[in-house]
Amino acid sequence: MPSTKTVDLAAHPLTAWQGPLGLPDFAHIGDGDFSPVFDAALKAHEAEIEAIAGNKEAPTIENTLAALELGGEALDHVSSIFWCRAGAHTNEAIQALERDISPKMSRHFSAISMNERLFARIDDLYQRRESLKLDAETLRVLEKTWKGFVRSGARLDAEGKKRLAAISEELSSLGTTFGQNMLADERDWALFLDEADLAGLPDFLKSAMAEAAEMRGQKGRYAVTLSRSIYEPFTTFSERRDLREIAFRAFTMRGQNGGATDNTSVVREMLKLRAEKAGLLGYASFAALKLDDTMAKTPKAVHALLDPVWEKALEKAAADQTELQRLAAEAGSNEKFAAWDWRFYQEKLRAEKFAFDEAELKPYLQLDRIIDACFDVATKLFGLTFEENKGIAAWHPDARVFLVKNADGSERGLFLADYFARPSKRSGAWMSALKSGYRLGHGSKPVIYNIMNFAKPPAGEAALLSVDEAKTLFHEFGHALHGMLTDVTWPSVAGTSVSRDFVELPSQLYEHWLTVPAVLEKHALHVKTGKPMPKVLLDKMLAARTFGAGFATVEFTASALMDMAYHARPDAPAEPLRFEAETLEKLDMPDTIAMRHRTPHFGHVFAGEGYSAGYYSYMWSEVLDADAFAAFEETGDPFNPALAERLRKNIYAAGGSKDPEELYTAFRGKMPSPEAMMVKRGLV
Ligand SMILES: [Zn+2]
What we know:
Layout: H1 34-53, H2 61-70, H3 73-88, H4 92-113, H5 116-127, H6 136-151, H7 158-188, E1 190-193, H8 203-215, E2 222-225, H9 228-237, H10 241-252, H11 264-280, H12 286-291, H13 299-330, H14 339-353, H15 358-361, H16 367-382, E3 385-388, E4 400-405, E5 411-420, E6 430-435, E7 447-454, H17 467-484, H18 505-511, H19 517-523, H20 535-544, H21 549-567, H22 576-586, H23 603-606, H24 617-635, H25 641-652, H26 660-668, H27 675-681
Helix pairs in contact: 1-2, 1-3, 1-4, 1-5, 5-6, 7-11, 9-14, 13-14, 13-21, 16-17, 16-19, 17-18, 18-24, 21-22, 24-27, 25-26
Bound molecules: zinc ion.
Residues 475, 479, 504, 507 line the site of zinc ion.
């Protein structure tokens, strides 16, 4: 039943934050509060938008752009708490609400971007932008806002708008179909095995396979499924070449098995519609449209990154294959080396070269000490300090609250962190903001949080992390710093509001400091003896990181190049799968490695817009972080103060206030080159 009670947004704990340190008063928020408060906040925002759009006065930055940016504060507040709860501490009531709120929000924001009177005011400012004598940040925000409207079709005539809306709707339903077909193919296929078929498989895999078989009604047997978490270890460890081949073929044919779940025609249709959409909006290709507001900007720039990496990756993979073939021959195999042999022999080689046990490292990586290490690095680089405020309630008793201070003791903002897994928390690790930091209007101090899923130890024992988990902690803390150090005027360019191919720079870069020897010596102390991690162990861990880079880089880059090949042309290929085969042939793709994602199951690109013409950005970010850390290495000091200040000012504090290329160049003195990334991956 919808609540008929009127909500006072100025007093409600979801929208008027009156808890300690300016946090929401979480203790007085009930699950039943969200729905009526959302409704009231949406209405309030609609009224604000109407007031801007219907303003009789001529448009000014103040009465239009600033009013637009500062509007919807109540909606921001209730949304940020709701999405925090939905991820970090959910229940059935919250989940039911999610299904209700998501479409409401998307209708609300699409109505704003389709508001013609509102766009007319933005457009008026935009056309006069030269004469307004704006500062650089304001000009950029105006341009970005204008572009956002235009990309939503604001400048099309009525017929064009109608067609764009139809295309978007159709693309979104095709994207959903694509994802569901992929899932159906993954769900419906299983290879049931018995004890005698399990040669070579480690225990963790056997138990996962036993559970998968039981879930499919075959208790007591073992199932190979097409979930990556079973497929990859199975083809890595199984001694049975015949079974590896069956699994490989099934995995690479997902979405291409004929019948109702075949994705071939879905892809064909999507590529056609994407090309049409780009044309309608005046772009040369769908990739040109998608890349327009990124750091890369053009397909040409993406190729300038991927092409040299591809060459090196092919060379490395060819050299690796020779070594793997030798191993296979030594093991008595006289079959032609095939794609289902690669992971298997690569694992044998890894075991031979880098025999070390993850379990040896764990006692050195105590959660509380690694948190200290994160803070310590932030103090050394940026002068920040962190004071925990125990006893302040957040969304769950495990969530911790830290007051963040600048070097001069002034208050910077709040950092909240919720480290342990529990059933009410979604898996994975992430950073988000309850509030972003900006100066416009009355200004706002950032309230940033990190969510992790580490196993909670029994009371009185220290939580221990794996190397990957410690890296994840640094990674998400890097995102958090991007939010906390933000120093901009306009909310829409605060913190992590940057392009997709730039947003992972602050996080991936921060990971590098985890393995700086001085940091490990101080913080990676054995849980029982208190002694630092031995150097040999550290060296082994670092050396193992580049192992298998030829294979990994070929399978990734092939998919990234395919994504560009599909989208950087003005039209769509008539037969996508034939186009896939031809493109691979042109690329000299080795037949012993499969693309990480083949077209009929390339979910990043076809199950929604997400990473379409954007799969490259994972590697783009890696180029940036490797090149940025190389800047510190070149000075011989991982905490070089002058460089750290340039890093703070241009990367962590600048948000999206300037073009990412300009920001990076201001930090580094030049644009990044893929060299450092190729060195880091062990390709050169
Ligand atoms: Zn990230």
